[in-house]
Amino acid sequence: MTTLVNQVRRAFYRDSVALMRISRAIESLAGVEAAALMIGSVTNRKLMEDAGLLAADGKSAGPNDLVLAVRADTPANAQAALAEAERLLEAPATSDKGTDEWTPKSLDTALTRLPNANLVLVSVPGEFAAAEARRALNKGLHVMMFSDNVALDDEVALKREAQRLGLLMMGPDCGTAIIGGVPLAFANVIPRGDIGIVGASGTGMQEVSTLIARHGGGVSHAIGVGGRDLKEAVGGITTLMAIDALERDPGTRQIVLISKPPAAAVAKKVLERIGQARKPVSICFIGADDMPVPANAALFSDLRSCVEHALGGRRIGWAGRTPDAKGLAARVARPRMRLQGLFSGGTLCAEAQVVLRRAGITVTSNVPIPGVATPATAPDAHVVLDLGDDQYTVGRPHPMIDPSLRNQMLSAALRDGRTAVVLLDVVIGYGAHADPAGDLIAALPAAKEREALLIASVCGTEGDPQRYSRQVALLEEAGIIAAPSNAHAAELAVDVLRALA
Amino acid sequence: MRRRGDYRSGMAREGPTSDSPAAQAGRRLGETPMKTDDLLESEPRVINVGLRSFADDLASCNASVVHVDWSPPAVTDPRIASLLAKLGG
Amino acid sequence: MKRIGEANAEAHRRILAAEPVLADVRLARDVLPRLGDRTILHAGPPITWERMCGPMRGAVAGAVVFEGWAKDLEAAMALAASGAIAFEPNHHHDAVGPMTGMTTRGMAVLVVENRAFGNRAFCTVNEGVGNVMRFGGNDAEVIERLRWIATTAGPALGAAIRKRGGIPLKGLIARGLAMGDEMHMRNAACTSLLLRELAGDLADTCEHDLGRILRFVAGNDMFFLNVAMALAKAAVAPAHGIAHSTVVTTMARNGTDFGIRVSGTGDRWFTGPAQMARGLLFAGYSDADANQDIGDSCITETVGLGGFAMAAAPAVVGFLGAGRLADAIAHTRRMAEITLGPNPEWRLPTLDMDGVPVGIDIRKVLSTGVLPVINTAIANRLPGRGQIGAGVVHPPMACFEQALVAFAELNGVA
């Protein structure tokens, strides 16, 4: 008889990723139908209720409490699962360092441990992030804010304050940075070199930095500015400071700037500043290729071309033979004709749209670039989706941390009789899943049973924990095409669609 | 593509890998140091507030990092939270 | 905000600068001039008879009989209920008292002088264990013992102490911390050290009952608690009343309410419900037998001892279950999150000689959500039945919220 049990731990907090890992572990126990460990916020309680996991105990939980919920086939299995969840909650986070297990609970005491700290990395839930950043700025520390869902007003106030103090306020919604060769949050292991990157996009910076690394270049620093920095209200404050900083940095000889096309007034300000720079700048405003730029700058609408320019005009191409689009099209079961893109990186989704639009192919997207429509307007058209967008991440971790939603949608896409080609990004590096390719493949039917073609690109380097070459090998063994860049993957998809037509 | 030289303070602008001494030096002589200089020229020394996995990753790169065991503020009353912020809490 | 920082730094400096000396033992009537007839001082913030818990009512009745204001306990209760007895906090008279904390004119009190600032603080002499007034005991045995302390043991100890010119306490605390005491629930080392200090002079000056007095002190592991409480009160008093300071200068419970006072908000009490301690109960007792948190003894935590110095007394953590050294250390480290800084004269060997955390800042309590941790005895809710366990307890957050609101009003912040 299905049993639902809840347990509430009062005034108990754990970060969402740690809780998600425990939930997943519990769900794999005998007899467990569903399990969740969540902080008792109003949103989370509704999610649990909708999932049939909330009992009376859980309903009484508050935003400072933790709710453990298990639905299992028997009471004994439910209790065993709860007990295991408790055990995992209590397990020490790090190995026993003897008597010094103490972790500071506040920035002040953390500073007694690391008095010469120069950067605070904030990844607390959005509604609390601004206060933490403010504390850090008041202590004279730079801030990288991974947190999103921060009010725009707060972002503006924080960036103005940081500017006044001469400090970098990277974010909100800054997923990637590499400072002095150290990867921060979602970032890759990149050899040091003289290319400095400024980016309003995490995966954009990841794609650019990893392409540079895989083709003989290196990065001095990659400074994230947050997704909204180039909006009119924010005015590019951090972008301008980052350009200043990289100009001053003796290790940087050229700058790459990556963003969606900025608001006109902000673009003007940024381009003027670039024009005053003493170092050359390669600019990628995704989807914009018709804009006058200063003499020391060059503009590209896709990431790959921007990198090629930064590398001195070097061409990035397929290793070995370029795949035969006609031959690949023959693998697709007729009458399938539709493209579905399932991306964990928003900028990679945007770059795919740029390539498709350039090729004259009509595509829709939930995060459309100018000239592209939303899926609702043309439900049967080709579609590329950013699964990291808010609509897919309410109450669940980002797809780069938790690929389960993408895996589900991938299975659905393959079963869908219209799907001919699926485009994917496989992002590795710090912060990402331990084995994204392996996890993806485990959810798939065997290659010969698939009726659609899978085309992927791996965004990573050999130095990453997951190892670029290993991820590529896994994909290829599973019959998935591994393209040398996200742009190449989209271009191959275009060629296959044309061959199918 | 722009290739014409652009002369300013005697510096030539060429391709992305300019070898001019001034471009290499970055900073002009006599400029006051900026707070970003220390961050970019030494190394990041990080205090991590939030997801523990970020601190673990930094530690595995041998970066200097201290993790803060953050929990939401105990004060849920917005009036008190506002007073606290104003009083330096 | 800068003014707050400066005011707090001054409060912290004053607490650390204390020079507490056990100067005397005297009758309360001689050293507490405002303690009038038919007035009983109690632990915790102000409270009326109607709201008093069982042990405190029992203690009040016993105190009334002790003073001769009624002929037996029943008459005493009626007198107390009639409004004829005035009840005031010990803290309003520079005094403190453990558990029920009864202080009346005829009782002997320890006198501690803070020679750095000239102020004094007072606390009754610890009666021992079991059937004692501090747990609400009020029968003939309790009253006879209090009389003996007032007429014999107290004066004898006072004479010995005066002969020594007073016993400096700061160094004694430092030694005790290195010997496993935290001065709230663990006082065995300091009791022993004190007895060694006094024994010779006691032998020289004592006219009656030397053996009984020595055994009285030697047989009570908690004798020094009352000295520690008076010491703490004397040390923190000069830090009270500093404008713009958010440092907590009083924490106390009366068995019904928990009250705090803050340096910069004058003599206002900020109260919330006294909590139930969490810990281990002696065999045969359950949570239903326990009284709510009671006593002025958390004055020790207010100056960095007790629960704040738990790293000195890892055995105390055993009351909370797992009880590893790391847990005791973690408690002390957590208190460093909410205090201004360490006291370098009171160092903890298990923390590589870091000083105890001193100077609770209400702002830090509110922003971190970390409440002061108090080591405490758990009393039987039935009067006179004594201690039934020990554990840790916290003030309710409401005290700190109220204090912040009051502080903000006083400082023109809205």
Topology of this protein?
The complex is a heterotrimer of chains A (501), B (89) and C (414).
Chain A: E1 3-9, H1 16-27, E2 32-39, H2 42-50, H3 56-59, E3 66-72, H4 75-90, H5 107-113, E4 119-122, H6 126-138, E5 142-145, H7 152-165, E6 169-170, E7 176-179, E8 182-185, E9 192-199, H8 202-214, E10 219-224, H9 237-248, E11 254-259, H10 264-276, E12 281-285, E13 297-300, H11 303-310, H12 325-330, E14 338-343, H13 346-358, E15 363-365, E16 382-386, H14 390-393, H15 404-415, E17 419-427, H16 436-442, E18 453-459, H17 468-477, E19 481-483, H18 486-500
Parallel strand pairs in A: 4-5, 5-6, 9-10, 9-11, 11-12, 12-13, 14-16, 14-17, 15-16, 17-18, 18-19
Antiparallel strand pairs in A: 1-3, 2-3, 7-8
Chain B: H1 21-25, H2 35-41, E1 45-49, H3 52-60, E2 64-68, H4 78-86
Parallel strand pairs in B: 1-2
Chain C: H1 2-16, E1 20-27, H2 28-31, E2 39-42, H3 54-67, H4 73-82, E3 86-89, E4 95-96, E5 108-114, E6 119-124, H5 140-164, E7 167-168, H6 170-177, H7 188-205, H8 210-218, H9 223-236, E8 248-254, E9 257-262, E10 270-273, E11 278-281, E12 294-295, H10 299-302, H11 325-336, E13 339-348, E14 354-360, H12 362-368, E15 374-379, E16 387-393, H13 397-410
Parallel strand pairs in C: 2-3, 4-6
Antiparallel strand pairs in C: 1-5, 1-7, 5-6, 8-9, 8-12, 9-10, 11-16, 13-14, 15-16
Helix pairs in contact in C: 3-4, 3-5, 5-7, 6-7, 7-8, 12-13
